[in-house]
Amino acid sequence: MKSIKLIPAVAVLFMFSCSTKNRTEDIKTDLTSSLGPTNQNITVKTDYNKGLKKLKPSPQTEINKVDFLTYADEDNLELLLEENRATFVIFGIVSNDYSDFEKKYGIKVKTENCVISPGISPTATLNNQLIAQHLTKKFTNVWKDDLKITPFGLN
Q1: pTM (two decimals)
Q2: 41-54 burial by CB neighbour count: b if 16+ within 10 A, else e?
Q3: In angstroms, how far is CA 65 from the centroid of its own chain?
Q4: For 64, which DSSP code?
Q5: What's the CA gap between 88 and 110, in Å, rounded?
Q6: How high is the mean pLDDT in each 10-residue block of the chain (155 residues)?
């Protein structure tokens, strides 16, 4: 009767010892067992560039410089305004249509993701403040009513 009580304890110990077994030996054994007996050392080399060398360039459409957001600063604000590339930056999940505002004032509105990193915060703030100053000089505060949202850094 005592031996019947020991069977579950032995089974638990056996399962525990199997589950904690070091798996690196199994991996080495699996690799060499399929090769059969050999005295050669196996070195696995991976050339990650090999596939890239076979790739052929695909025809690309021309990428316009207006496709990328350039943050305004004191040096490039005038250029961005001339090229209609000045862009208010808004952080968060916003699905408003700003096309009327963009047509009327020539300023785009770009919605970025919710995460505002310490690195982008001062850049986006300066960008939005410079554009807001430009709009206020040119259109007074009327533009704020048409935008219907306060861009980042203009509180």
Answers
A1: 0.56
A2: eeeeeeeeeeeeee
A3: 21
A4: P
A5: 6
A6: 62 57 51 58 63 58 61 91 91 85 93 82 93 95 91 88
